[in-house]
C-alpha cells in the first residue's frame, strides 16, 4: 500500500539555518544509537525517541505530522591502541561519520501504518537526502577548533639583525654554552644558539638561551626544532614574555643561511606541549600511586560530554541536580513531558531532560565502543550526555554564554538561576531557586552623628574575599609553566573559611554625605545575615591584579567536612540605643550634594593610564572609595561600547519633586532578578533616565537609597510587599555543611578546566563520600581534601 502523504505540501527540505534534531530526542537523551533508532519528523525536523517512552508518537499526535525518517546508527568497533595515541595538535581531526558508524534509515508513516515507505516516492528523496546532509543541532553548537590566537609584537616587527654569519648545516650544531643539541633556540638578532628551559615531558635544557637574552638584551628567538617548511615555528619574545609570530620569519632565517623550505620539524612546539601538559594536568583521574580512579555508574552518576569549552556548564549542572530541590522539581519520571510545540526551545523541557539524563541512571554505563583488551583491563568511562539544547537556551541572546569560549562558572550559575526563576512553568511554590534565597541586612552608621540606617537585600549567593598573603620565596622550589619557563613557585599563606567570612562581614568606611547632620566624614557599612538559605552558594574571590591583568592565585582556603556554625554572622537588627536616620534625609542630601569622585582614588587610576571618564565611571560603579575595586571594574568593562561616553552622574538628583517618570516594568523586573527590590529599582531608573546599566551602577554606589514607593500615586509601600515573608530562615543555630564544590584549575576563570565534587551516597560505601564529575568521567574522588582548598564555588547545605 502506497503512503498518501509523500506529496504533502508541508514537506520541504530544511533550510541552511534550520535545526535538524537527528542525533538525540528533544525530550530525553535516547538517540540514534539505541536499538530502535530515532525518528526525525520530516515536517519540522524534531527528533523523537522510539523506545519505551516513544516521544516520537507523542509528537505525531500533538502535531499531526505523520511522516518520519528513522535513523539507526551502530558504532564500528575499534580496538584501543596501547599505549593510547598521543594528542599532538590542538585542532580537531576531521573524521567523518562514515568512518565511525554504520547507519541505516527508513521512512515511516504513522497514519498509514507503513514502516518502510519507498524513499524515492513523492518528495521524499530530496527531503530525506537534505535531512541526512544537514548540520545537526549539536554540530551547529560545537567548537570547531582549539587554535590559540597569537600575534606579532613591536620586537618581531621591528627586529634589527647583526651582520650575517654561517650556522652549521642541518643539525645546526649545539648550544653555544653546553653540549645539548635539542631544545635549541636561535637568537634572531645575533644568531646565537642557546638551549631552552627544561620543559614538560623530560625535555632537557639549561636555560642558556635565556641567559643570552638577559646579557645581550636581544628579545626574539626561534625554536629550531619547531621549524616547518610551511613557515610556522615557535617564536618567543622575552621582552614581552609571550609567544609571538614573526611576519618576516623566512627572511630573518635566511639572513643566517637557513632555508625554511628545507626544514623538517623534529620537536614538539610549545603549544603542542601545552596541550599535552593540560591533558595530564587537568584534574587527574588516577590516585597518587598511579591507579585508575574507580568509575561510578548508576542513578546520579551520569557524566556530561564536553561540547567544546563547556566544562563550566557541566560542573555547575552536576552540582545543582545533586540537590533535592532541583531533583524533585525536574526529575518527574511518572509524568508526561511538558506540552510544548517546540520542545528543543523550551527551558522547562530541557531542564527535565537533563534531570532525567543525570538522575535516572538510564544512560550511566561504560562506553561500549571501547573493547577492553589484556592491555586495557580497566573499566571504560561513560560516553557522557551532550546537553547541547540546554546550553543553547541558556546562552540564547547572551553576549558570552552564546559563544564557544570558556566562561566563568559562577557567572553561569547566577544566569541560570535567573532563567529558572523566570521560567513560565515555575509556580512560586515550586521555584527551586528559593533554596538559595536569603536576606542580608546592611547597616550604615554616620561617623559624625552616629545615626543609623538598616536595609534588607534579598540575595542568592555571597562572594567572599580571600586575603592574598605571599610566603617568602623558596628558590629551590622551581616550577615549569605551560610555556616551559622556569620560575620560583609562589606560595601563599593558607586562610580559613572563618577569616574570609570575618572580612566579608567586617565594617568598612564608605564616602557618603549624611543627610541628617550634613557631615562628609562618611559612614561605616556592615553587612550581616538576617536569614540563612537552605543552600548557600559561596564564591571565593582569589583574584588580584598582576601586570594589569586579574589573575587567580592558588590561595588555600581551609574548609572542613564538619558543619560550620554561621550564628556569629547573624545581624542583631536595630538596637535600643541606636537612632535611625530620618526617612527624608536622602532627598535633602541629594538636592544639596552632588556626587563627586574620590580625588585620591581618581588620581591613582589616572596614574595607571585610564582616561578620566573611565575612572569616574568605575568609581561611581564601585562605591567611590577603593581604587583596586574600580580598576577591576575597568578591566571587565573595557569592551563596553559606551565606556568613553561622558555621563552626568547627578542627572535626576534634583528632580524628585517633579512629576513621576514612567518606568518600564520589565526593567524593574530585570533589576529585581539581580537582587534589588522594586522601590530601589524604580528610584535607580528614575535617577538615571531609565538606563539599565547606569541604574545598576547607581544602585551599587548608593547603598543607603531607600527606594521610590510611588507607583503612580501612593507614597506607601504596597501592603502585600510589607506582608511578604522574607526569604530564608532566621532560626538558630545555623549549621551549614559543605555538600558540593565547583573547582577550577588555571590562572584565569576564562581558561583552564572546571570539575565538580559532590558529597553523596556512593554504591558499596557505608557512608556518604565524594564523587568527582569531570565532564563525561564520573569516579570516586581521591584528592577532594586538596581540591576543597582551591574550589571556586562552594555549596553549603543548612542542616
Structure report:
The chain has 799 residues and is α+β, with helices and mostly antiparallel strands. The strands form eight sheets. Strands 15, 21, 25, 26, 27, 28, 29 and 30 form an eight-stranded mixed beta sheet that branches. A hairpin with a 5-residue loop joins strand 1 and strand 2. It is globular. Helix 20 packs across helix 21. The longest helix has 14 residues. Among the domains are: 121 residues, 2-Layer Sandwich (Herpes Virus-1); 120 residues, 2-Layer Sandwich (Herpes Virus-1); 147 residues, Cysteine proteinases (Cathepsin B, Chain A, Alpha-Beta Complex), CATH 3.90.70.10; 33 residues, no CATH class; 38 residues, Helicase, Ruva Protein, domain 3 (Orthogonal Bundle), CATH 1.10.8. It is built from 23 helices and 30 strands. The protein starts with 37 loop residues before the first strand and ends with a strand.
Compact description:
The active site is at 311 (nucleophile), 753 (proton acceptor). The chain has 799 residues and is an alpha+beta fold.
Give the CATH superfamily of the domain at 281-427: Cysteine proteinases
The helicity comes to 10-25%
Radius of gyration: 31 Å
**Tally of contiguous helical segments:** 23
> What is the arithmetic mean of pLDDT?
79
Alpha carbon gap, first and last residue:
66 Å
CATH topology of the domain at 281-427: Cathepsin B, Chain A
Shape: globular
Largest sheet features? 8 strands, mixed
Low-pLDDT runs of 5+ residues are: 81-95, 140-149, 274-282, 373-377, 586-593, 652-661, 709-723
CATH architecture of the domain at 281-427: Alpha-Beta Complex
- Quickly name the level 1 CATH class of the domain at 281-427: Alpha Beta
Proportion of β residues?
15-25%
Query: Could you say which structural class the secondary elements and strand pairing correspond to?
Result: alpha+beta
Question: How many DSSP E strands?
Answer: 30
Binding site for substrate: 185, 197-200, 236, 238, 241
Catalytic activity: Thiol-dependent hydrolysis of ester, thioester, amide, peptide and isopeptide bonds formed by the C-terminal Gly of ubiquitin (a 76-residue protein attached to proteins as an intracellular targeting signal)
Region (Disordered): 707-731
GO biological process, one term: protein deubiquitination
